[in-house]
Write a structure and sequence with these properties.
alpha/beta, Rossmann fold, Arc Repressor Mutant, subunit A, 5-stranded parallel β-sheet, 4-stranded antiparallel β-sheet, 8 helices, 12 strands, globular
Length: 227
């Protein structure tokens, strides 16, 4: 049973989302502030965090930053408005996806299951460890190392890297990556892809040079390599 930590200050939304997800087989723990949510992280050990962006006290972006300091648990932001700036800031903080409130329980459930599936990717049927320059990609173990040191990657980041590196030099459009990694075939939101690419580059690329692994093909999308 997936464990979900819901951090939401609106009582009606908190109770409604929790009730709906419990009815679909999830173990839901809820907190009404960012501080309370962070305090529950250690005891709940969630498989996924549903995080309201506009929280009193420590806001959702700050909570996401704090979570990412110690954990790569999937994070889905809940936002009451489709404000581009807020969404981008949240994605840059390390969120894997976002949902604009109000949202039906079935929509939230679909996004939750899509994110959790990224942790169970079949490794593209390519066993063993692949070495690409300074990167060692373990498809079976879903881990990445750079110069021998493990690189902590969120689920969306590891799935994006696995997908791109499985076909070096092949160019993928943002829409193709959105459909494969986020399963958003109905919602063409390139912000998810671009924010994830920026976070991934920050972790695997040389900050002093041009992108070596995740390359932009202007007007088309992204590709892995060539090295």
């Amino acid at each position: 049973m997936p464990r979900i930590l819901l951090i939401e200050d609106d009582p009606s939304i908190r109770e409604g989302v929790a009730l709906g997800l419990r009815g679909r087989g999830h173990d839901v723990s809820a907190a009404e502030t960012g501080e309370a949510g962070l305090a529950l992280m250690g005891s709940v050990r969630p498989d996924l965090v549903l995080l309201d962006l506009m929280l009193p006290g420590i806001n959702g972006v700050q909570v996401c930053h704090r979570i990412r300091e110690t954990s790569e648990v999937p994070v889905i932001m809940l936002t009451a408005r489709g404000d581009d700036f807020d969404i981008v800031i949240g994605l840059e903080a390390g969120a894997d996806d976002y949902i604009v409130k109000p949202a039906r329980t079935e929509v939230i459930e679909a996004r939750v299951r899509a994110v959790l599936r990224r942790l169970q990717d079949p490794a593209a049927n390519r066993p063993g460890v692949e070495v690409h320059g300074e990167l060692a990609i373990d498809r079976a173990g879903l881990t990445v190392a750079k110069n021998g040191g493990r690189v902590p990657l969120a689920p969306s980041e590891i799935k994006l890297l696995l997908h791109l590196s499985a076909s070096p030099e092949q160019v993928f459009s943002r829409q193709q990556l959105l459909e494969y990694v986020w399963e958003h075939s109905y919602h063409a939101d390139a912000r998810l892809v671009d924010a994830c690419v920026r976070r991934l580059r920050h972790k695997v690329e040389d900050p002093a040079g041009s992108p070596r692994y995740i390359q932009t093909v202007r007007g088309f999308g992204y590709r892995f390599g060539p090295l």
